[in-house]
Design goal:
It contains nine helices and four strands, in the order ααααβαβαββααα. With 187 residues, the chain is α+β, with helices and mostly antiparallel strands. It has one domain: 3-Layer(aba) Sandwich (Glutaredoxin). It has a four-stranded mixed beta sheet, with helices on both faces. α5 crosses α8. The radius of gyration is 16 Å and the shape is globular.
Length: 187
Amino acid sequence: MLDWSRVYDEALPYAAFLDRYANANQRPRWDAMHARITLDDAQKSLLQGFVRLQHVVVFNGAWCGDCINQVPILDHFAQATPRLQLRLIDRDAREDVKSELAINGGNRVPVVVFLSEDFEEVARYGERTLSTYRRKAIEQLGASCPTGLVAPDAADTNVVIQEWLNEFERVQLLLRLSPRLRERHND
């Protein structure tokens, strides 16, 4: 069993991760996608209403188109509330994490691991949202790895933002309703 507190401690904040891992061709794509993300007032309000601390570890790669299109969304969530502590770890940084987070026998990214305030694993989510898979099924049924060279359109991005936000909210509610944490916080 992984010690998620150690993984979290070894992982990097968003900007530091990109400074370390993104090359000169990748960084502009990350920055451009980050600039395209906007949260509406209702989304910001939801995030600002979070009560429980969530440590969030994102297993990803600076080279990955799916990461370029999704992980900046998560950084915007973390910027909206101090209750989300976001850290990123490179897919190849730790073999034990890579093995633990394999999806369907493959090393897919991004995968998000949600942790409680005391680093208990709460949930995992990744590597693409349902709307992304629906869109890909319409476009093609073969294997692909998007390059991140062409960003999704605004409507697709907004749907993905909401899908990720729904998962963050689900985890927050799971934490709020946890008997263990309710007892700890006397609420």
